[in-house]
Amino acid sequence: MALKGLDIFKLTPKTNCKECNQPTCMAFAMKVASGAIALTDCPHMSAAALDKFASATEPPMKTIDIGAGECAYKLGGETVLLRHDKTLVNSNLYGICISADMPDAAIEAALTEMTKIDYERIGKRMYVECVYVKCNSDAVRSAEVAVKAVASGRVPVLDCADPDIAKSVLGAIKEAKPVLCGANAANWEAMNAVAKAADAVLGVSGADLNELHDTVEKLEAAGNKKLILDVGSVSIKDAFANAVEIRRAALKDGDRTFGYPSIVNLAALAPGDLVTQAALASIFTLRYGSIILMERIGYAEALPLFGLRQNIYTDPQKPMRVTPGLYPIGGANENSVCCLTVDFALSYFIVSGEIERSRVPVNLLIPDAGGYSVLTAWAAGKLSASSIAKFIQEFEIDTKIKNHTLILPGKVAVLKGDLEAKLPDWKIVVGPNEAIQLVKFLSTIN
What we know:
Largest sheet: 8 strands, parallel, barrel
Structural class: alpha/beta
Shape: globular
CATH class of the largest domain: Alpha Beta
CATH topology of the largest domain: TIM Barrel
CATH superfamily of the largest domain: Dihydropteroate synthase-like
Number of strands: 17
Helix content: 40-55%
Number of helices: 18
């Protein structure tokens, strides 16, 4: 919750010392409220005031860390219900389910299929992040399966309501910083002790939302705020309603007891029905599963789900951009032609994909065009003969590339004359209007 300038002013020492480079403490407070400067810019702010400020401005939904190393993720931290209100912060994670009751061959097959889902989409790596392990009464077997999950390079999510078995399994994999699900109204004290000893996030469930709320309150009173809430598996209707009610209670009603990420087990909601699980995964991606578990995830499920997630968890106020620079494609070297496009991520990946498909070595030049598409960047003055010439000079393209042939996007052919004047040593060629036409065009020009 954002504090107003007057609220922040009450936290200041009110000395008007100007050491914060502001004329008065009130001016300083107004700047902090607007986000222009930080509260810590005041050298005389007390520790109590800083703590109060942090407490008042922290998100209504806590940020929870799970996993370790390259498999470390953040969940929660949201401040709005819908993306268009502001932006969503930490994207949800997908996982597959395995069980200690499954034979080794079936477990290996499931993990192998999961690891095949690994590709790049608009600059982001797309893959399944979690493996849900349902433990049984055999602690040794459950630990063996959990170790297999960790070896797959994914975050293990354990389902175990027996504190003794949970303790044994966590002892084998605690370095992976797993999630331990299984705390409820009956066993929360023992499960809390096990989770805290292993520094694991604790998954909490309840017969209904009232019981879940009461159990979370008890865990918080015991000092545990590394929690994730199970929306339940009684029915699809109840699980969806619970997910929405938990998120609304935290973000709209200010109920910080429900201010935690949620976990949705679709394998339990629609066992054996992979089509329904995939459909539900899309629903809970939007409303409001932080970890979404399915029996299996193949490319048929991954491609639409990961695309949906990426669309939802990108900041609508910030264009998706790639870093400006020189990108050799297809084994391009200093003697290969140059092709130019903008730094809008979608434009880059479409153009680079068509260049790769052509099998023609090309040096792709990406100037800073504000993250806009070609025509929008040109209309906004972000892509011009001057900006292109400046880019070539700053990145020393002249010295890096001997083949001074530059293919210009056909939609900005109007820049050709100005570019020839500013780059007299270059041969400017107008390319096709659409990226899909590059394959034929490059084979001709080459």
